[in-house]
TrEMBL record:
Protein topology in the membrane: Peripheral membrane protein
Molecular-function GO term, any one: hydrolase activity
Catalytic activity: (5Z,8Z,11Z,14Z)-eicosatetraenoyl-CoA + H2O = (5Z,8Z,11Z,14Z)-eicosatetraenoate + CoA + H(+); decanoyl-CoA + H2O = decanoate + CoA + H(+); dodecanoyl-CoA + H2O = dodecanoate + CoA + H(+); (9Z)-octadecenoyl-CoA + H2O = (9Z)-octadecenoate + CoA + H(+)
Name of the protein: Acyl-coenzyme A thioesterase THEM4
The family this protein is said to belong to: Belongs to the THEM4/THEM5 thioesterase family.
């Protein structure tokens, strides 16, 4: 699974921020209603995100029936959203707040409904306000407690992705939208 993605050769290393959570620690989500990581998003992905080693993020996701695309399999856009979410948390490990600038996904195998999916995203490097990332997804067998674990040699690779995330000032970027939510305006 190799995607064509023009990664600059002169990237600076991505350094883990001193304030980044310890490896294995659960990461806070973007918000309770976030489609990717929010626990209150009724039709959301409900990804469980964890700090990885270095500048990495891991995630687990149960492939629910509501994610169906082709018969009995996940919709490709849902898997792309999961990649967007897990790679979008990588810049936070560097102490940066970013939004998606580019997302590319390569699908390698169908993902059946009902399986546990494991995703791992890492930083390839940074260039000024840009953070370049890559990620992989595997189907994993549940452990003894019924929760999926890292795939190791037993995981089935199903997809890979590359992303470009651009650092922003959240107050400037989300200012009008956030102000509307605080005043009780309807979500769209």
């Amino acid at each position: 699974m190799t995607a064509f993605f023009p990664v600059p050769a002169d990237l600076d290393p991505a350094d883990r921020a001193a304030a980044a959570p310890a490896p294995g620690q659960r990461l806070p989500g973007h918000g309770r209603d976030c489609y990717g990581c929010g626990p209150d998003a009724p039709h959301g992905l409900h990804l469980e995100l964890f700090a990885g080693d270095g500048v990495a993020v891991t995630a687990r996701m149960r492939v629910r029936p509501r994610f169906e695309g082709g018969p009995g399999t996940i919709h490709g856009g849902v898997l792309a959203s999961a990649f967007d979410e897990v790679m979008g948390h990588v810049p936070t490990m560097c102490g940066r707040f970013c939004v998606t600038g580019h997302l590319q996904v390569d699908f390698a195998a169908p993902v059946p409904l009902g399986v546990d999916l494991y995703l791992r995203a890492t930083a390839l490097g940074v260039q000024r306000r840009k953070v370049f990332t890559e990620a992989h997804a595997w189907i994993v067998e549940p452990g003894p407690d019924g929760i999926a674990v890292e795939p190791g040699a037993s995981g089935i690779p199903v997809a890979a992705a590359h992303g470009l995330f651009v650092q922003i000032d959240p107050a400037s970027h989300y200012g009008a939208v956030a102000a509307g939510r605080r005043s009780g305006a309807q979500k769209s």
